[in-house]
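Narrative progress, year one. The postdoctoral researcher (J.K.) led the effort to move from monomer predictions toward full complexes, under supervision of the PI. The following entry was the first complex the group processed end to end, covering 615 residues in total.
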Amino acid sequence: MAHDPALLGIFPHLDDLLAALKKVKKDGFNILTVFSPIHFSEIQEILGHKPSAVRYFCLAGGILGGVSLVGLAVYAHLSFRLITSGKPVLPWIPFVVVFFEGTVLLSVIFAVAAWILKGRLPRVRPNPAYDPRFSEDRFGILVGCRGEERELVWKLLEEAGAEEIRDVSG
Amino acid sequence: MEGLSYKDVNREILRTLSPPTRSYYLIVGLLLLAILGAACVWAYQIKVGLGVTGLKHPTMWVLYLVNFVFWVGIAHSGTLISAILYLFRAKWRTPIARSAEAMTVFAVGIAGLFVFIHLGRVWILYWIIPYPNQRTLWPDFQSPLVFDFLAVSTYLTVSVLFWYTGLVPDLAAIRDRARGFRRKIYGFFSLGWTGTDRQWHHYGTAYLLLAGLATPLVISVHSVVSWDFALAVIPGYHSTIFAPYFVAGAIHSGLAMVLTLLIPLRRIFHFEEIIAIRDLESVAKTAILTGLIVGYSYLIEYFMAWYSGNVFEKQTFLFRAVGHHGFMFWLMVFCNAVAPLLFFIKKVRTSLVWLLIIAVLINVGMWTERFVIIIGSMSQDFLPHNWGFYTPRWVELCLTAASFCLFMFLFLLFAKFLPSISISEIKEDLTPLQRGKGRRDHHGA
């Protein structure tokens, strides 16, 4: 993903990162990405993410899975030519189990596919802003900035406690 | 664990991926040899036919089905620990969840293998797939065996995806510290994960959904396995308590296997700081609960046989206790219902030696339980002239032993090539490095 020139601030402390995020957002700069070693709900809250669309994919997968597996069962039962007495051709109560398994199977597959794709993965080329320390103990904010904004953002990140700031482009 | 920093967590867990010692290669090599030997035995069975086993009328479900139910049961606690305890926010799950999930994946795979072995003519497996064919054969979707196929294959898929989803951030952590070919391999499987807010956001939602979906699934799988028996009219099988009884038994065996694997793992990898005694103690406490449910089920089965007034039920349960396989029954009762009661004593459940001994006893007991249920009822059903006693042959015994070798082999590979404890989840339980501003900073920064 190519993007405009940006500044990456690397933070060792969570408090500083959260404070910097609030400040950057308040000052109206464009936060491109926040890197963190683990999931922090505070970061999501500050960035104002909407609830993930993964839920809808999961629901769609569940409906599709349940209906299609029961559809397969109905097709198989209707195609059976030999006469078997004493049993309904379409036994709906046992099909509840079939429906349940199909629902769970495809909802899980869809949920996994959704988080991967919505997270813009798989990614072949490495993210130019990524620093291996983000998978260890450091946090990062990537802020888009042009022209004179660069100085302001640099100063803001520095004052917020960034241990390292660097230019990222492309 | 409280004294660890994020960096320490990475270092402690990733050091287990360092090049293995000679003894590791030796053990893995021996296990591989045993597996190859078992493959030859299976090939022999395919060539000669199922007659080489002890499978004969009336005992048409033999050791292979015992192993199938046993391994599906073992697979249960993985999802219990990783999904159900995740939803309940039980912190003791974190250090043990990854190994338990790996155990689940391997155990379900091995369980599925026994179905193929039991089929005999495995090359015509495709006959059971529903597609238009000239044989006019279609699977019966109201059969518990088809339920079982659907449930186990769904469980395997969900377990693999759940396990893999949890692994992705950790694979990225390995990738960032690896070089050369290893970096490429881990990079490929980490999908290019960079831990952005966007990735964590969707990942967090998906993980919660997977946990929520896996929870009813874990209950359903062994319920469905129990219906393989409960929907038959054979005395000793035809019972309404089978589903909860099997689920409790499955979790019981799974918890025991978690202890059996984690206690040596903790010692070999020096995970004393991450896997605390109190985490293992929590597993033991849960095993008390499942042991009591299993013990209650044993008792209530006898009550139901007596109270029903059904002569065949009464006879089956009498034979179970004092008949041909009576020893197995009493071994089952001791290992599953009596031995776990020792966990009520704090000294026992906080002693690694006792934990391991009782866990192994429960594993033995749960395998025995499957034997008692499956073989016992089939050997002696309604008519005395239809009775017949089963003795396993060398082929079945070899393949049974090999399944344990395969399980250990896969677990050893897992422990050496993947982080056996979740790095990102352990970090979530720690206080992050903070500057202060009135908040706690245990790193002194």
